[in-house]
Hints:
The protein has 741 residues and is α+β, with helices and mostly antiparallel strands. It is built from 23 helices and 16 strands.
Amino acid sequence: MNVLRRFQLSMHFFKDLAPVKAVKSAYNKIPVGQYGRPQYPSVSVFNLNRFYKTNELAFSCIRAIAYAAMDPEPVVERKTANKWGTEEGHPLRSLLMWPNPSMSGAEFMQTILTSAQISGWFYAEIVRDGLGLPDQLWPLDPSKIFPVPGDDGQGGVISGYEFRDGTIKEFIPAKDMIAYRLPNPGSRFEALSPLMVALGTIDADVAMTDYIRAFFDGGGMPRGVVKVKRSLSDEQITSIQQRWLLRYGRRGKMKEAPAVLDNETDYTKIGASMDELENETIRGQHESRICGAFGVPPILVGAYVALVNVNQRASVRESQRDFWQNTMSPTFTQLRLFFTTRLLPEFEPVALIRGERVRCGWNMDHVAGMQEDTDAVHKRARDDFNGGGLSWNEFRAKIGESPDPDGNFFLLPTGFKPITPKIALAQATTLAATDTSTSADGGGDPGAGGGAGNSGDGNQGGKSTANPNRAPQVKSFEYEGLSLRREPTALEKKAGLPQIVAAMDEGEASLEKTLLRIREAMINTCVEDLQKLDPGDYHTLAITISGAQTKQVRSSLSNTFERGRESVTRELQTQAEGKAIILRLSSKAASPGAERLDELALSTLTKLANDVQARAVGRASELILLGLSPKDDAQAAKVKPASFWKQLETDLEEGSTQYAKRAASGATNAALNLGRTLEAEERADEIKEVVYSAVLDQNTCGPCEDADGETGATDDDVTSVPNPICEGGSQCRCLHIHVLA
């Protein structure tokens, strides 16, 4: 059975259903359960759907939630330079905006929330295109879907879902189904919907409505007994009942006339009249509880309890804001996380998602309940402009006005002294011109733009390294929060240097943290293995690198690799001045990068292991020379702490960790540049020139400084990065800057 047929069989659950006509009589006795309590209504999906159709307030609350879902628009956000930005034209956004030929994105979101509020579940089958990517989403009736447990032996994995409709059965693999569930604290596999929680109160509210209908069907009179002072047959009793209703019932001919009884008949009331029921109080309790379960303020659904107790005009605005803050905002947060973890991996590498580089989000610009008052927006923008926080054009944009051609200026409060890049460059140039520390033989300050022994003018050992592509160099240059070795060129500025440095810093910090955890485990392993060896065999100590350790390092490097790819896309986007440029290198095409990242992870761990075991062997030998004996400790361990091994472990743990930091720095540098290089290779037809840049470090080694400014047609035509002969062991943060054709 095809997807469209399953969808059609499911649509009866999602249609806007008119209340059914079948209403139970109020005078029927309510079935009672154990200890005389009324039985709780069944929470089957079919019964929940019936209550949704027959209770006006439950229907209104669910409709309010579903209608509110029409305003937010799904977006995909990507992080660059620690700032989230919306990515236009992403395939996941397109899928959610038009999930299938029969539904719009707004209808799809309404279906999700309506189904979830009723049953706690929403199911949709994924239809894939020729490349295996999701192309359509078709909602299914949750009453027809049954999870199929996997083969893990514990029921913890769902292998798929079975669609059942009468005699029709079809298995749908888990990968081709999206299953959105409202959590149930009592079960990992069952849902708990607001309608389930409020069902008892809703049932009572329906019963009250039925009672009122029956009351007026009976002519507005309480139920009673007509006593006849003689024996009657069953046929006579039925005849009297029918004639009474025909005369005095809701549609009786004598409904407004007084009842007339003969001398052998009298009437005794046995039911309650409307004024004896305290109907308003009971109704108010029911309505407030139902609205509370759904998280919808009563005033927004026209509940009677709100209309008689609140000031409507003042409360509607506050209720809309409360509704969005306390109900809809958490709902859309849950949906954002669901789409991020379930659908986004279909289009993006998992490493990027777990590394918090890309996620799903919502554009809330059209949500009336979240819009700020116009006067408040204008006041805040005006205060920010007067305080120097916004330019004139930024202020105009905040209040919805078009930019002023001459409006790119700020108002700075009295006493503020602006420092522009030109002013900073002039100050640095003046400082360099007045520096008298240069010796007569040309030797210079190592901090003047090169490694030790490099002069400030770029000479090294009398050999000229002047390059026509290199910008004028000063001691240091402050640029957008970075301390650079020289002023960046126009091309380097377009490369987004702050974002690249942020990627390097964050990647290095993440990897260093991982390496330090692994270092601690390696130290423990070394101490344990050394206890099994004689001192003469300490040199045979060898650490085995585990698969889990490799995976941890590989994951960190993969995040940096992806950010390197993004940086090339970003710099070309900047050069293109608005032209749409997307990532070229797909996850499937990244096998060369994956292999290289595996090599980087293993070499980084090997370097770390060599450092740890060398220090362990060296320190153990030193402790023996200092008079401590591992053998004596082994014998005395039964009665006192083993001081030799305890001292060794303490010394290793408290020793320097700079080798881990250096390993993290070099590996991060290599991973980021690997991502940039492979992305550039995929874009060879878009790139006309490559420039070697050594602008990021204040102190750059001689070989990297010599290569600064080299140009070539491709990455292979200039010195590679990291520089193979870098004197800092790949610590210099050099780059290839790519020029858009």
